[in-house]
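TICKET #2291
ISSUE: user wants both folds in one file
ATTACHMENT 1:
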Amino acid sequence: MAANRKIVILPAIWALLLCSMCAGADWPQFRGIDRDGKSAETGLLKRWPVGGPKLLWEVDGLGDGYSSAAISRGTVYTTGMTKGQEFVFAFDLNGGLKWKICYGTGWAGSYRATRSTPTVDGDRFYLFSGVGEVYCFDAASGDIIWSLDVFSKYKGKYPLWGMSENILVDGDNIICTPGGAIASVVALDKMTGSVVWECTQLSEESTYCNPRVFEMGPNRIIATMLRDSVVGIDAKTGKLLWADSLDGYHTDRKRAVNANVPIFHEGRIYTTSGYDNGGAMLQLSPDGSKANRIWTDTTLDVHHGGVMLIDGYLYGSNWRSNSRGDWACIRWSDGKTMYDTEWNGNKGSLIYAEGMLYCYDENDGDVALVRATPAGFTPVSSFKITKGKGKFWAHPSISDGRLYIRHGDYLMAYDIKNKR
């Protein structure tokens, strides 16, 4: 089905609280409700049929894009680029196009494609374009409510592959990283786009990281990675609380890909970056105002496929080259390697639901179902994505018993419910 025109629809009736509907079904932003890659759904298949789970529907005509699917209140959102312009699409749960909106000029440098996944928050959603413009949309109609060129406003400097951040919603604010000489990280009022705070203590470049928010003692903290450090910022004021320099364990600073969402658990933060830079564990003070690096590792050297924390163990795929890597597990407490296993020779992205890892090979398009256990990496089932072109870089999504896979021009929805 070609997604090539805007279709006018009647306004949807929106629920009052986002969480009431998305607790088990929705996947409203990049890597799910909490940005940790986890779905709370149950009743899913633990083994797929030969050839993979049933394909419910597929759409093409999306253009070039590495955007994942965001699913909220019966609508599936994603983005794509055609002839240098970025578009956002909305589909119903049967794959029918609701609307298609052009929202601006896309990234014209290396790997020309959309990067950002819509972040849905109630009756609005937010996008960060490849050239550093923030957009707020009406989630029902796709109409643009406001926009702000934060890249220009804060005198940003593009990283090698453009702006690839997914907007974080934190209460009344949205958080983004223009990576500018004036401020690296800023908060905007999500209703109006007006500036709430600017972290002017930082002037580091953005390097594709997606920030995470958490509470520690009395403080609410934004954690993210910039070009030269892992930082913690007061979510209320924008004041820099701490910064841990990447010096001392990052060996390749030229390419500077720090794309993975930081993992927060029990007063600690783990980050990892690829390119043989490895990962690091930070211990926070009881109020979160200070951070101390307690160990580093070289095994879980994740490029941009995400990291999972499951029952005291971290899972991901590591970097051996820009296209190759293994699948690895380390212990949360001390970084001890549990396994480091080759699967097709390729690295990729992964998410989690009901005891299983869903692994997506970024070179060949293989999708595997793997038990999340430190005992080893052994695919239970797998199938291959054959539609679409280019790298398989979009992270999978799970919503209401469906597995959503994006590849280039195509978006596919698979039935992973256990019908027994």
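ATTACHMENT 2:
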Amino acid sequence: MRTNRIVGTAGILTMLAALPAAAQLGSFNPPPGPQKTFALTNARIVPVSGPEIASGTIVISAGRILAVGASVTVPAGAQVIDGTGLRVYPGMMDAGTSIGLSEIGQGANATVDVSEVGSFNPNAQAFFGLNPQSAHIGVARVVGITHVVSRPTGGILSGQAALLNLAGSTAPQMAVNRNLAMVIELPRSGFGGRGFGGFQAAQNASNTQDVNRTRTRQLDSLRALLKDAEAYGKTMDAYARDKTLPRPKQDVVLASLVPTVRGQMPVLMVADRATDIKEAVGFAEENKLRVIIVGGRDAWQITAFLKDHDVPVLITSVMDLPTREDDPYDVNYGAPAKLAQGGVRFAITSGDAGSEARNLPYTAGMAAAFGLSKDDALKSVTLWPAQIFGVADKFGTIEAGKIANLVITDGDLLEAKTNTKYLFIDGRLVPLDTKHTDLNDKFKDRP
């Protein structure tokens, strides 16, 4: 997707000119302008929550959508942007990435802060590893991704994911929720395979037994840690009520798990195989956790199970190649449509750590080309992920009172030929310069 970097009104040009010169010339992610009162007029509005408005007005003030409709009055003093021929969409949400935590995954270890040493790190927070200057942020937001869930990986208890707006010079400026969800990667069970004879079969069986013994020990350790966190929370509550009790010893690891074991914080469980998904759901129900499946490659095979247990799925594999030799070529392309038909709550994600998160609209577009309705494809990257994480009161649709994360385009948001014309994050106009446009400007006229 190309982007149009020419802003169409003198007032907006003046505002952007006022930004620090270093930010415009030396940063891949130029900071947004101030929160002002804006009026987007004469635009085709796609609110997602209701029917399209063929020609309407959106008023933004103090970072929120103040009004939207076909006959909205433009407030005095508002910065007016003529949207004739343009479409306005709610900003997209990539809920399956680690953007900002890993810049160059191979060959530059100093730029990678996506995981911690050890198997149990519930106190690790993606927020503290965030690099606001990551080049991945700029190229993701100019296609219409305005907010993301960035999660740590590695180990069994990976840490806490954060909900981030993709604009800001510091992590606190970007953070919407620093402690959005806990990430758990349950160890997979071993399996022997067929082999080619008695020795190979015996070797496979031995390996499987070793893997399963290790897995059992790891699961027992995780269960014990969750029980300890539950007891720790009760102890701290008792002390808060009665200061005459002995003061409990502070434990940052257990304290970080208390919201999880109390069901206040959802758990992202990484699982792709149908058996692993079922085991993850079973483990969550056993320990009274609010589970969200991340990955979900084979979730389409168990739609009835997922619907019965009311478990949402963040699909990360739509653009992946088939994993089994007898799978049809479009098994992953068509998975979202099958989940929708089965009544499963889901969201489509890029499934990428950061550099390819910018492909999110095309990923949803591919799902639409293989059976998912266009309306549902749009919802799967706007409203539905917001609902899954309980932030639909802030994001996902164009409605009065919601955060003004908006993308204005000259065509369908999910088509690669579409150009981004304007972008708002938190009610701030965001420049469309990125590392890609900087390099293009630098080398386009090279002899």
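RESOLUTION: both attachments delivered.
EXTRA DETAIL ON ATTACHMENT 2: Residues 10-91+400-443 form a domain with the Urease, subunit C; domain 1 fold (CATH 2.30.40.10).
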